[in-house]
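Anyone? Bumping this.
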Amino acid sequence: MGTRIYSFGDGMADGGRGLKDLIGGKGSGLAEMARLGLPVPPGFTLTTEVCNEFNRAGGKLPPDLNDELRPALRLIEARAGARLGDPDAPLLLSVRSGARVSMPGMMDTVLNLGLDENVVRSLARSPGSARFAWDAYRRFCAMFGEVVLGVPGNDFEELLQRRRQLNRAKSDAELGAADLEALAGEFKQAIHARTGREVPSDPYEQLARAIEAVFRSWNNPRAVAYRKLNGIPETWGTAVTVQAMVFGNLDEDSGTGVVFSRDPATGEDVVYGEYLPNAQGEDVVAGVRTPLPIEQMRTRFPDADRDLRLICKKLEHHFRDMQDIEFTVQRRKLFILQCRSGKRTGFAAVRIAVEMAEEGLISQHEALARVEPDALGHLLRPVFDPAAEAEAHHSGRLLGRGLPAGPGAATGKLVLDPRRAEQMRARGEKVILARRETSPEDIRGMSAAEGLLTSWGGMTSHAALVSRQMGKVAVVGCGALRIDDAAATATFNQAGQSRTLREGDWISLDGFKGEVLEGRIETRPSEVTEVLVTKTRKLESSTTTRNFVKLLAWADSVRHLGVLANADLPEQAELAVALGAEGIGLCRTEHMFFGPGKIEPVREMILATHAGERRRALERLLPLQRDDFAALFRAMGGRPCTIRTLDPPLNEFLPRDDQGIAELASKVGLSGEELRKRVAALSESNPMMGMRGCRLGITYPEITGMQVRALFEAACAVEAEGVRVQPSIMIPLVGARRELADQVAVVRATARRCSPRRATRSRSRSAP
Amino acid sequence: MFTEKGHKIAFKVGTMIEVPRAALVAEQLAKEAEFFSFGTNDLTQMTFGLSRDDVGPVLQTYLEKDIYPADPFVSLDREGVGALIRLGVQGGRAGRPGLEIGLCGEHGGDPGSVEFCHQLKLDYVSCSPLRVPVARLAAARAALVHG
């Protein structure tokens, strides 16, 4: 058994960033910062190995752990100049989780550990500290009660609320020392009533129970679900960091906050963050008070502000990545409590990676490794007008949050019923479909909507899967949302506030962040699309596009795999080329058959009962198909194009209902009865495994022949215009060598028959 | 095949590999085909015996109960479908050395699947136009990780 405990503080540390697997992200970050000489409160970290020992022993700490715990505590006491349980100079501790990778909010924390009645009374006697002391104590009781003893957090919330009502207080800040003292007593009674147990007054007992509880929280349902979603093995375990507390809620000269060394939304190289004067970290997280932008800290704490900005750069250079930093100012002195690589949007990921590579902080290869490929997809999606979105947040129009299942921004009228979504869409209205959860029968309504919102389900729910397939903006599992179908209303309960929207009210979804906002927020197309595809914006005016283009140029210089596109129509081909496709890897010719004026001859071809009829229909199709191929070849400007011969079952082109059959019958000059017979003859019980792909081409070689002829004639025509053509012909659904040999023979024979004279002749014939 | 100017338009004829049997007899097919392209939508559908158009309710249950680790139509099933692709690549290049091989299913734009294509030494992936940048970056990252 190696060392179980790694201490840090006073410019020294046992561990460092090489030990992330053992002492977790938080532990290694703190150790690293201590070594850098940054102002980190002293502490120590229990390794992930202890967590595994704890779990193997069925939830018991190793019996000899105390032998290591005591000296480590002595070291903190010496470094902090305070002692655990000493009423004159009490050491208060925080106990936090910290896995190898950040699992924000998934595991438990106990703060203000080391307080009991004695200590708190002594603390409260020093001038101006009474309120602070009792506030710290009631928070400790509630956290210990909830995290260690399993009392529902709501019990404490209700008592707190009652106390506020009693005092007609709008917020906790208006409660005085006497109220908080009373509250601590009520909390302790509630704990006893629920569990029959007491909050221990022995600080060592408190610490042992708190460490156990945090280790236990590695296996709470939230953490288990998060691990599963993110592929984190159970065997990693969490480390636990025990650290001297510093207080941002001591007085008006104190505060707490979070900063990012660069803007996590845009990636811009500016310190971005928020802070709250006279507050503890959990106040920032809980959102009960609105934090102030970090820019305002300079006037209040100029020294701490200057130190913080220097530390941001120092940490960023040290870790060579954008940092997310938690800090506390205690009586104007700055302490850093945590640093880690900051989570960021796709936009920020690209900008930070490219700019850091340009600054020489990281290599181009590292820049590529820093950006998740899907983030580039985000850069192609519509976004909110940033000013309008900021205004929506500022004016308190955030209705709730969910999981960002479909990136992009969408705005529209709220609809709760898929059929009404279709109807409103048909009238040209933009709609957002909100459902408890979606099911397959909602598909058409989902397709009609600009965006989808559900109150239930996760990233693998039906709504999430389908929105990804459809490319829809989606926010799923928005817990704040309650839908009342009878009243046709959607109610959002968030942070103690309730807001009800009716069907037809405007609502907006941010599918990047998973936010639901009230009202109409204008969206605008992606800048990258504007520059590269529609060419409506200049490259110089778009930092996003500049970085996008640069990163992909670096990617192209490294990759071995070619990247081609699936494209059936010229506009798709142009889009693909604009986004860097080196050619077309798949053109589904059947998609060309659905265009205007084409479906009729296609149907005639399908319904033909003998070769002559079929040939006549194919002759009508030939020039149409040839023009389509020519347009595609032109759009590809000399790049390779792989064309697949007809693949789907023929009945996909035929009408299914009586009305469609009657209409088609009159067009093709058949009786309804006769047409019905022919359609029935073509129907298959399992069409996906029936007459499709090369089976069609083998049965009706003239279809393959027509397609190949159209292809070569188009290639000749386009080459005559001076554009190179590199065609490939691909045979679908082959399972046997002879199938392929048959179709290859048709292709080669057709190619031989396409002489230049005939090619030009057919071209001039089809020219308008 | 000649144009008016008298020079040839070179063309290739190849096959989709999307029926499991095609992967199994790839060496024979390569005698006829100048290139292969794995159609992984159909190959997944036929390997699992699971209709892509009716997959919704099955998949929801299967993902909830952790029977499949992921939607095989989104992230390529390396174990099963991947084994067929591997066979197809081996057979194809045994039948015709240097055979050009690509993949043209929806998976062509899925980063994990692109990585797998790189590992199998495919020549290219083909994906929907909007996924092209994603595939370019995924291919680069795969090259950095796997060489």
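Late reply, but here is one note on the structure posted above: Confidence is low (pLDDT under 50) at residues 1-5 of chain B.
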